[in-house]
């Protein structure tokens, strides 16, 4: 499905990683300076490209991942509350740029809801979440589903310059999971598998994606414009 293609629309699915927008080693700490810059660059792109529809997602970082890593009888409500708090702060910064954001909790996500938001000239903001049975809803998984249905460009903004290889340098292109091996360190609180899991899912779904540093000024805008900065994950060549 490629909604709006007949009207000349194209799509960008941009996921803001939790490691980008929150403090990695400090629970429930948001990086407001980064988030303000991200919001400004999204606004610039949206204003300049009326024929492109943007779908946003964000991860849990030191909010959701931290709370979900503590297993007790309150884990569901704590994790849900933490993600609502983080989403409120993300939404607030985007609204300050006059972006027409509508939040969609992961537990209530459906592609139909996203479609309705797009058709109403709104920008969906879906976030990772926890189900009532305690299982984790990954924003990575949702982003892949949306991008496949819309034939959209898939963008992952993280806190590193891309996927790092054994030498610590950025791998410019990946077309096989074996290219990165198991050298990528998992985030301390990452309950969704970290960068290795992200790349694996992209390749298994035969998607192309760009993984880049969203904290560097100008990168969000450049990625939305279509520049292959950071690491290009090429799954379509295996389709």
From TrEMBL:
Single GO MF descriptor? isopentenyl phosphate kinase activity
Which Enzyme Commission number(s) are listed? 2.7.4.26
Q: Which GO terms describe its biological process?
A: terpenoid biosynthetic process
Annotated Aspartate/glutamate/uridylate kinase domain residues: 12-206
Per UniProt, the enzyme's principal EC class comes to transferase
Q: Which GO terms describe its cellular component?
A: cytosol
Per the similarity annotation, which family is this? Belongs to the isopentenyl phosphate kinase family.
Q: Which NCBIfam families match?
A: IPPK_Arch (NF040647)
Q: What is this protein called?
A: Isopentenyl phosphate kinase
Question: From which source organism is this entry?
Answer: Sulfolobus tengchongensis
């Amino acid at each position: 499905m490629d909604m709006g293609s007949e009207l000349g629309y194209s799509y960008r699915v941009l996921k803001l990683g939790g490691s980008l927008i929150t403090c990695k080693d400090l629970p429930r700490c948001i990086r407001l300076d980064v988030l303000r810059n991200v919001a400004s660059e999204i606004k610039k792109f949206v204003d300049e490209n009326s024929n492109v529809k943007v779908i946003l997602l964000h991860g849990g970082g030191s909010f959701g991942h931290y709370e979900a890593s503590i297993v007790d009888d309150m884990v569901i409500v704590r994790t849900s509350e933490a993600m609502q708090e983080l989403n409120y702060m993300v939404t607030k910064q985007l609204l300050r740029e006059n972006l027409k954001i509508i939040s969609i909790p992961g537990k209530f996500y459906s592609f139909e809801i996203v479609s309705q938001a797009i058709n109403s000239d709104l920008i969906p903001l879906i976030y990772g979440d926890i189900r009532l049975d305690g299982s984790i809803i990954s924003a990575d998984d949702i982003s892949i589903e949306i991008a496949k249905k819309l034939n959209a460009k898939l963008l992952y903004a993280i806190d590193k310059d891309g996927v790092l290889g054994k030498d610590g340098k950025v791998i410019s292109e990946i077309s096989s999971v074996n290219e990165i091996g198991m050298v990528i360190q998992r985030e301390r609180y990452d309950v969704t598998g970290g960068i290795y899991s992200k790349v694996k899912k992209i390749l298994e779904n035969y998607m192309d994606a760009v993984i880049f540093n969203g904290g560097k000024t100008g990168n969000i805008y450049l990625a939305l414009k279509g520049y292959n900065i950071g690491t290009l994950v090429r799954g379509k060549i295996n389709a």
